[in-house]
Specification:
The complex is a heterodimer of chains A (about 270) and B (about 260).
Chain A: E1 3-8, H1 16-29, E2 34-38, H2 46-49, H3 60-64, H4 70-73, E3 75-76, E4 83-86, H5 99-112, E5 115-119, H6 126-133, E6 137-142, H7 146-162, H8 164-167, E7 174-182, H9 184-188, H10 195-202, E8 205-211, H11 214-222, H12 233-245, H13 261-266
Parallel strand pairs in A: 1-5, 1-6, 2-4, 2-5, 6-7, 7-8
Antiparallel strand pairs in A: 3-4
Chain B: H1 2-10, E1 25-27, H2 33-46, H3 48-51, E2 55-59, H4 61-65, H5 72-81, E3 85-90, H6 94-102, E4 107-108, H7 116-123, H8 128-133, E5 161-164, E6 173-176, E7 179-182, E8 191-194, E9 198-204, E10 207-210, E11 220-225, E12 229-232, E13 235-238, E14 251-256, E15 259-264
Parallel strand pairs in B: 1-2, 2-3, 3-4, 5-7, 6-8, 7-9, 8-10, 9-11, 10-12
Antiparallel strand pairs in B: 11-14, 12-13, 14-15
Helix pairs in contact in B: 2-5
The chains are: A alpha/beta (about 270), B alpha/beta (about 260).
Chain lengths: ~270, ~260
């Protein structure tokens, strides 16, 4: 049975698209046929992060309007043949999306794919609403900072009251917390909320912590999902997250200050 | 066909829902059934369409208050003859209730004039919260009308308790007509309102308003007070007014001389 995952946050710039790209790639790399959909109509980004911007012919809105078939619009990833991207339209706005249209596309994708990752736009308006409406699982991307946490809390409220599962009284959406741009050094200095602080406010199952990392920006600029950079801490963090989501038990990393070998041997000042 | 019936066996074909109806209540102040029949007939003639096959609840509270007995069987026959359909009795004595039940007329509890339920409500005046926080059985039969109770207290504690097991998130709003029990946290930016008491068995970070219809006996209980605003019957405090000994503590909040009192529990 296919599962629809929404990557959402409420607040902008916290790493939703980076996460969508990494998670989708991670699932596909493990052999699960995965589609990732950009719901940010008008502010198309996912294709850039996935490095397929030059191969976009048709988009999400074309499919909704019946101007193209789903197969025409889906772009196969160049790194992994199990991964397909459905880009957003850059020339339209969110009003081009309709609940009926989105539902139809997701139903069609469900026949063929194991996982469907929906990259939500920021905000709680139509685009974000449609991205989460049909979801089975929700990845809440949060930065360790009060406004991001508050917005995530708001989004959780919407997930539990306005989604299809909520409206039809089905089992609620499974919610997972992804804490991104985490920097243990700054937490220590009291400049950043700690994992415990965030969990106390949101009381949510923590799927993983993604450290603040230069590799994320490099990966975005080069159009390679950061999870493919296996040497980077952020890439490893996403690999852990995918593994945990699939049921593996992996200890949490990147929460404490990373100590080098010398640090471990001689302690730290 | 067989697949159809198989499916039916697995998928539910019914569900229970609670809803409230507006039903005319016939309040009796005299026990002469013949006079009642005549006066009722006159009323019906004023609006025959309205009363045709109309459901009806008869209320014997006034009669029983003055110890006037009435034959419920005879009364029911008279009412039925006039084309009305009695669907309930309230305020009846035990024998009258039994008579009604024998005729297939449900007894509406909670309004029995000389009975324990009523007394319990009255004794609760001093500590309304204790009465309300005890698990009151949910009323299965919807009340036709809010009771015109002759109690001295301003508002009887409602019998319905709303139970929330999920966290109440920022931006969510919950309104309870009776008591509100929340078994999880209430986030900052959330709003919980109740006409009765509020219990929060988690951190209370949002706004909590108890006794919103003016019940000054309502209280707020929480296991960790970090609220943005607390209010009882319109008297409120904002988080700035919440001083440190009460903060982050399990407390109860009640009204005393129009002032909110926060006390640890």
């Amino acid at each position: 049975m296919a599962r629809i995952i929404v990557v959402t946050s409420g607040k902008g710039g916290v790493g939703k698209t980076t996460t969508s790209a990494a998670i989708a790639m991670g699932l596909a790399k493990r052999g699960h046929k995965t589609a990732v959909i950009d719901f940010d109509v008008g502010l198309r980004n996912l294709d850039l992060i996935m490095g397929c911007e030059r191969r976009v012919v048709y988009d999400f809105v074309n499919v909704i309007n019946g101007e193209a078939t789903l197969n025409q619009a889906l772009i196969r990833d160049k790194n992994c043949n199990q991964l397909y991207i459905l880009p957003a339209s850059q020339t339209r706005d969110k009003d081009a999306l309709s609940q009926e249209g989105v539902g139809k596309i997701l139903d069609e994708l469900k026949k063929d794919f194991k996982y469907i990752v929906c990259d939500s736009p920021a905000g709680i308006e139509k685009g974000a609403h449609l991205a989460m409406y049909f979801a089975d699982d929700a990845f809440i991307v949060t930065n360790p900072e009060v406004s991001s946490v508050r917005d995530s809390d708001r989004m959780l409220g919407i997930l539990s009251s306005k989604s299809r599962r909520a409206e039809q009284n089905e089992e609620p959406i499974k919610e997972y917390l992804l804490l991104s741009r985490y920097s243990p050094d700054r937490v220590k200095l009291g400049e950043m909320l700690s994992v415990d602080d965030v969990q106390e406010i949101l009381s949510l199952h923590l799927l993983g912590v993604i450290p603040e990392s230069k590799s994320v920006l490099n990966a975005s600029n080069s159009g390679m999902p950061v999870i493919l950079d296996e040497k980077s801490d952020a890439g490893q963090a996403y690999a852990d997250i995918v593994a945990r989501y699939l049921g593996e038990d992996r200890p949490h990393r990147f929460i404490d200050d990373k100590k080098g070998l010398f640090g471990k041997l001689f302690g730290r000042k | 066909m067989s697949t159809d019936s198989q499916q039916n066996a697995h998928s539910p074909v019914l569900e229970f829902k609670s809803s409230t109806f507006s039903v005319p209540v016939l309040v009796l102040v005299g026990n002469d059934v013949i006079t009642i029949g005549q006066q009722l007939q006159e009323k019906i003639q004023q609006a025959p369409e309205f009363f045709k096959n109309s459901p009806l609840v008869f209320d014997l509270q006034e009669l029983n208050k003055h110890d006037i007995d009435i034959d419920v069987t005879e009364l029911t026959h008279t009412i039925r003859k006039l084309g009305l359909l009695p669907i309930g009795i309230r305020g009846g004595a035990a024998q009258q209730n039994q008579q009604a039940l024998d005729l297939g007329i449900p007894v509406h509890s909670g309004h029995i004039a000389r009975d324990g339920v009523y007394a319990a409500n009255q004794s609760g005046t001093g500590a309304a919260s204790t009465t309300a926080s005890s698990p009151t059985p949910k009323q299965q039969i919807p009340e036709p009308e809010p009771e015109p109770e002759s109690t001295p207290e301003p508002q009887a504690v409602a019998a319905i308790t709303t139970m929330i097991t999920q966290p109440v998130r920022s931006g969510q709003r919950i309104y309870a007509q009776g008591d509100l029990v929340i078994l999880a946290q209430v986030s900052a930016g959330a709003e919980i309102l109740a006409e009765g008491n509020i219990h929060v068995y988690g951190s209370l970070r949002g706004r909590a308003l108890a006794g919103v219809q003016g019940n000054t006996e309502a209280r707020i209980f929480c296991s960790d007070l970090q609220a943005e605003l607390i209010s009882i019957a319109g008297n409120y405090k904002i988080s700035e007014d919440l001083k440190s000994p009460a903060l982050n503590q399990p407390v109860q909040i009640y009204l005393q001389n129009h002032t909110l009192v926060i006390k640890d529990i």
